[in-house]
Amino acid sequence: MTDFQIRRRDFLYGLAGLSGSVIASQLPFESASAQAMRLNGAGASFPAPLYQRWFVEYNRINRNVQVNYQSVGSGAGVKQFMGGTVDFGASDVAMKDDEISKVSRGVVLLPVTAGSIVIAYNNKDVSNLKLSRQQLVDVFLGKIKDWKQLGASKSKPIKVIHRSDGSGTTAVFTSHLSAINSEWKSKVGEGKTVQWPGGIGAKGNEGVTATIMQTDGAIGYVEYGFAKNNNLKTAQLQNKAGKYVTPTLENASKTLSQVTLPANLRAFIPDPTGDSSYPIVTYTWILAYKKYSDAKKAEALKNVLKWCVSKTGGQQYSSQLGYVPLPDNVIQKVTQAINTIA
C-alpha cells in the first residue's frame, strides 16, 4: 500500500466517524492478495465504532487477514449467526439457551467490551438535564410531552427518538425501564423490539444519533460513544441509590465492578446498586461457533479475538471511543473461552 493509499484510508476512516458502516467492510485493502483470509461478521451497532477501529488496526499488523463487519443491529446479527451466513455475530444481549440450542455447530459467547446507554438530547435551552427514574419512564411513555415539564425555560414539544430495528441497545434500555417501573413493564415490557407508545423510529445507534442531531427538541437513547464523539448533550440519570449520575467511563466501570461474570459469560445489570453507579451499562458479545469446518479460518478468528481482548491490542482503543476496557479477570475468562473454538 502506498503512502497515498494509507492516507486515503485513514482519511475515510476519520470521515466515517460513527456513521455505523464499519470501515473494515468498505475500504479497499490494496495489499491483501487473493490468498488473504476473510472473516465476515454482522450484528450490534452499539460496539460498531470500536469494532471498526479494531479490524482496521488488526489489518495494519496482519495484512493477510481481513475482517468485514456489518452494523445491522443485534436482532439481525443473531439471526444471521443462527442461519450460518456469517463467521461471527454480535449482540448487546447474550443469546438465550433456546437460541443456542438451535445452532448445531455450538456457540461461544464472548463479552469483548462494555459501555453505557445514555439519554441524549437536542435543546439549546437546556444545558444540565437531570432525569429522575419516574421522569425517564414518563418521557418514553409519552406522558411528559413538553420540555418545560423537565425544567426548561421555554416551552417546546419533546420528540422521542427510538430504534426502529431489532436492537440489543433497545433490549438493555427497556430492561432497565422494566426493572424500575411496573407500569412500563406491564404496558411496554422489554426486548429487542417493543411497541413504543410514540416517537420517531431510526435504524441503528447511528440513525438515532443523526436524528437527534437533526431534530430540535429531540431526546433518545444511544451508546455513550455515539453521544460523546458527536458532541451530543446527555442527561444525568437517577440510580437505584437515588443519586444523579453523569455518564462517564469511570461511573460505568463502577457499575461493572459489581458484577461477576459466571462460567457461561452471560451477565445482565438491569438496575445496579452503588452511589456512583451509572444505571444503564452492559457488556456486548461477539458470537462465535464452537466448530468451524475450515481449521485455518477458526485459527484466524481466534487470533483476531485474542488481540481484540488483550490490553496491548484492542482494549487500548476502548476508552478513546467511549467504551469500558475489560477488567483483567474478565480478559482471562474470555481468552479461555476463545481457546475452546475449534
From TrEMBL:
Pfam families per record: PBP_like_2 (PF12849)
UniProt KW keywords: Phosphate transport, Transport
Top-level taxon of origin: Bacteria
Keyword Transport listed: yes
Single GO cellular component term: ATP-binding cassette (ABC) transporter complex
GO biological process, one term: phosphate ion transmembrane transport
GO molecular function, one term: phosphate ion binding
NCBIfam families: 3a0107s03
Alphabetized PANTHER family for the sequence: PHOSPHATE-BINDING PROTEIN PSTS
Protein known as: Phosphate-binding protein
